[in-house]
Amino acid sequence: MSYQELYKQKLTTADEAVKVVKSGDWVDYGWCVGTPDVLDKALAKRAGELTDVNIRGGILTHRPAIADVPDAPKHFTWNSWHMGGVERKMIKEGMAYYSPMRYSELPRFYRENLPPVDVLMIQVTPMDSHGWFNFGPNGTHLKAACERSKCIILEVNTAMPYCHGGFENRIHIDDVDMIVEGDNKPMDELGGSGEPSDTDLAVARLVMEEISNGACLQLGIGSMPSAVGKLIAESDLKDLGVHSEMYVDAFVDMSRAGKITGANKPFDKGRQTYAFAAGTRQLYEFLDNNPECMVAPVDYVNDITRVSQIPNFISINGAVDVDLYGQVSSESSGINHISGAGGQMDFVMGAYLSKGGKSFICCSSVFKDKKTGELKSRIRPTLLEGSIVTATRANLHYLVTEYGKVNVKGMSTWQRAESIINIAHPQFREELIAEAEKMHIWRESNKK
Looking at residue 242, what is its pLDDT? Predict the structure, then answer.
């Protein structure tokens, strides 16, 4: 039987496909822009017949239909590997929960720690002439999830970019149970944050001073990494490399400006390596059928040992709050859940182990409370009760705000407190000093 004949044999409707889901099942929705759409809507229509269906996914780029059915938490529970704005609302509605992880370990979770997945449904590219469906910009852990799934349903989307990779970036029709042809909607766009603010640019300029020709970059999503990308694109830097958990629009800007060649990478030379991607339309167009870009599973991309082998590795990530000990919370503020651990710890550790490598945690010194309009400091004496420590005080390297940067490696607690207070917003420095004294991590020194 030809692959095309097999395709027709396995082709069905979304409504028929989701009939395989039973109450109590664990259903996997894949990841980010690979989250199913028509299958999700079809499953939502069955809500009245189902209870206690657990769904796994991560980084939703739009609200799923299962979240909008009446009494949704009775029927569906969303278990997320990483949280964004959509998931935060679902947490407050009582139907979403975070699954703590270090992102590099996720494929192993599926292969060794989790029970088999009852049903997996993900978006993929159309089948090629050899019977393969490409995962698009979602290498991450999808192959591991496929290996451990009892039933695999693919939702074909002609708008999904075909993403080249080294391995584990596709599935063969022989391993698929059902195929559904989706609505071919354009990829959800994420991270088009517009022009960077003055604060973003101030932080980016401080980081730029630490980047040299031939450095290899990892960027998180957000306005500050985007600002770094903008400045690099306008700079004289050259022969930069990319080895990043997430591929973001900033890399496209740098590539089109001729700054990225990957010539100095010890492996994957000349290629931009990433685990998943999400961004604007220009990003998807850049990745589509581009052999320069290499999607790979996250246990390859985020592996600390592998990252450490890349000289002059530069890791740039954000934070919610930082305390005077140097503890970084990028997941929550108190018990208010915001994001997830992702690969921050992987890259904080891997970059420092790299010869000449540096990791940067970047944040604005203050934020405005949405309810009161009051200015509040991101640098706190201690993290709020309930806050999750994402990067420990022992692993922090550089901390950067618009008021400066500090390398805390080798500093004692009083040195850290002084240095971190020196880059806090001036309005809060005296208050922070008073708290540091109570905590016995302050001494009279060269206070600025």
Answer: 98
Name the active-site residue from 245, 402, 418, 435.
245
Q: Which amino acid does the sequence have at 358? A: K
Per-residue pLDDT at 229 = 87
**Residue 328: how many CB atoms within 10 A of its CB?**
29
Rounded distance, CA 448 to CA 446, Å? 6
Distance of alpha carbon 45 from the chain centroid: 30
Q: Is 233 within 8 Å of 253 (Cβ atoms)?
A: yes
Distance between CA atoms of 240 and 238, rounded to whole angstroms?
6
pLDDT of residue 196: 86
- Give the length of the chain: 448
The answer to whether 169 touches 134, Cβ cutoff 8 Å, is yes
Alpha-carbon distance 84 to 369, whole Å?
A: 19
Contact 303, 243 (CB under 8 A): no
pLDDT of residue 191: 66
Domains annotated on the chain, with CATH: 3-181 (3.40.1080.10), 198-438 (3.40.1080.20)
Amino acid letter, residue 258: G
Q: What is the pLDDT of residue 447?
A: 54
Rounded CA separation 323/328 (Å): 7
Contact 81, 99 (CB under 8 A): yes
Strand partners, 178: 153
Give whole-number Cα distances, 331 to 268, 327, 328, 339, 375, in Å. 31, 12, 9, 4, 21
Residue 218, C-beta contacts closer than 8 angstroms, at least 6 positions apart = 242, 243, 244, 245, 307, 313, 314, 315, 316, 317, 347, 351
User: Does residue 49 carry a catalytic annotation?
Assistant: no
CB atoms within 10 A of CB 368: 11
Task: Flag residues of the chain having pLDDT under 70.
Answer: 191-194, 445-448
Three-state SS at 406: strand
Give the amino acid at 102. Answer: R
Give the whole-angstrom CA distance, residue 71 versus residue 93. Answer: 10
The rounded Cα 5 to chain-centroid distance in angstroms is 38
Question: Helices 426-438 & 413-421, crossing angle to 10 degrees?
Answer: 160
